[in-house]
Amino acid sequence: MLTETVIKDFKKTVEGYSSSSTDKEVKDVFSKIERIANQAPAIYDSENIGNYLAKRNEVLNTLVEDYFSLSMSKEFPLISEELFGLKRKLTLEGKGNNYSVIHDETTKEDPKNKSYTGSGEKVSRKNLIVPLFVYTPLFNKEHKAELGSFSRTVRKSNWEYGSQTVRQSVKLSAKLPGIIGPNLREAARNAMSHYYSILSEMFTSPIASEILYKNSTEPEIGAIWIPTAESIIVQSKEKVIEQRNLDPAMIITARGKKYLVDTWQVDYEEPFESYLREFTTGNLKGKIK
User: Fold this and answer.
1) Contacting residues for 129 by C-beta, under 8 A, at least 6 apart
2) Which helix (DSSP H) or strand (DSSP E) does residue 87 occupy?
3) What is the DSSP string of 195-255?
4) Element (H, E) at 35
């Protein structure tokens, strides 16, 4: 299925990965919390009591989280994590240090990773798998989501610096379309109000309130969307990789001491004989090349 088709069916896709709960489901979970919280171990010895209490605590933590999720999804359907596992495949074409998306498909792609020469300059292609849905927090100034990134090392030549090894870093991002108007702000306020009303109900239970205090987190209002291929921002940077002193030396370790056997030089690296002369005793003749 083409990404364009998924974008057209955006609402249907999100709803297909969402689920709502009923009043009965919420009440059933709350009853379980109260019942298990008041249960006592049947066998009174220290080992079994310890195991029982640990298991009961684990079950209660799960039930409290279930109660909260079901209470929220009565009003706002719970989105499955599988939605955020959906991927899309992008093919980027790079000419020099400039990249752009030339192909976008969710299940199949034709262009392959390869380089070719067009109009006298080398052109490269890169296939990249990124999330189909992207997320950004709302009510901040960025409204920007990162899709993915890659890097590659290339060898470049120019008249001023000669041959250089360059690291190209490419990042893909997208800007949330549209503006946050009054209707969306009202919807956000309703969501936060529902969130705090659930907490208020749960704090009537000593066990639930204790677990909530222990695992306290702040809610965040955000947005998810599927960026079109045309809206994806491709930023690339180049950094010259400075050649480092990596010349190897062969040594032999015998009875806790190290002895120099031989050295060799790697292309584009500077030799380090001065260091060897300074920290080595004995005749170095024939050992340094």
Assistant:
1) 87, 88, 89, 90, 148
2) strand 87-95
3) HHHHHHHHTTSHHHHHHHHHT------EEEE---GGG-EEEEEEEE--------EEEEEET
4) helix 23-37
**Pick from 270, 230, 99, 231: nearest CA to 169:** 99
C-alpha distances out from residue 206 to 26, 34, 62, Å: 18, 10, 16
C-beta atoms surrounding 61 within 10 Å: 14
> Does the CA dihedral 189-193-199-200 come out positive or negative?
positive
Give the pLDDT confidence of 140-192 residue by residue, as tens digits.
778 899 999 988 877 766 655 556 777 888 999 999 988 888 998 899 999 99
Query: How far is Cα 100 from Cα 235, in angstroms, rounded to an integer?
Result: 9
pLDDT, tens digit, 9 for 90 and up, residues 55-107: 888 888 888 888 888 988 988 899 998 998 989 999 998 887 788 898 887 64
**Residue 226, class by beta-carbon neighbours within 10 Å (0-12 exposed, 13-18 middle, 19+ buried)?**
buried
Tokens of residue 26, six digits: 């919420």
